[in-house]
Amino acid sequence: MGVEVDTVPMIRPDGIDALDARLITLFTENPSVGVLGASRELGVARGTVQARLDRLQDRGIISSMGPQVDPAALGYPVTAFCTLEIRQRQGHEPVVAHLAAIPEVLEIHSTTGAGDLIVRIVARDNADLGRVIDEIIDDVHVLRANTSMCLVTHLDHRTGPLVQAAAGRGAAS
Questions:
Q1: What are the backbone dihedrals phi and psi of residue 148, each rounded to the nearest 5 degrees, phi first?
Q2: Membrane-crossing residues (predicted)?
């Protein structure tokens, strides 16, 4: 397959174009493709692929080229979500710092509604989940925790359809 000169317009300042979407999709589906492989697969110059990747990273659209890790494969098959009610006199920072020090805490989100934070955690088994929850609530700023265990993940974290929609191609892929 020969490499063609890129005739696709450059990135729009407010979003991505079809080539960006194809590039993001390719690296999402095949992270080890590399810049040269991507240029061959997409039919554009190697320099175009590198420039596009650099711009997408500079703009924060691509936040990482690192591998995705499966907690279950690491020995943490139990996933749970904790909704935390916290003391808000000192803001969220003290609780976030406490939670960030717990390796089993994977995500922390400030929320509206009944709780102040939602935390995604993993554990080795149910007993270990109890230990992780105890560690989470062992902070003077945490008033209450409500935990829900994940039984089955029906749709894991994804961005493909969003990338396609942002490029103006609909939600397919």
A1: -120, 130
A2: none
Condensed to tens digits (0 to 9), the pLDDT of residues 10-46 reads 444 568 999 999 999 999 888 889 999 999 999 999 9
DSSP element (H, E) containing 27? helix 18-29
Q: What percent of the chain has pLDDT over 70?
A: 89
Q: Which of 11, 8, 3, 5 is nearest to 39 (CA)?
A: 3
Q: How far apart are the first and last CA of the chain?
A: 24
Distance CA 3, CA 47 (A): 11
Where does a domain end: 68, 99, 124?
68
- Which residue matches tokens 């989100």? 109
Output DSSP code: residue 160: H
The pLDDT of 85-100, averaged and rounded, is 91
How far from 119 is each of 3, 19, 127, CA to CA, in Å?
46, 35, 18
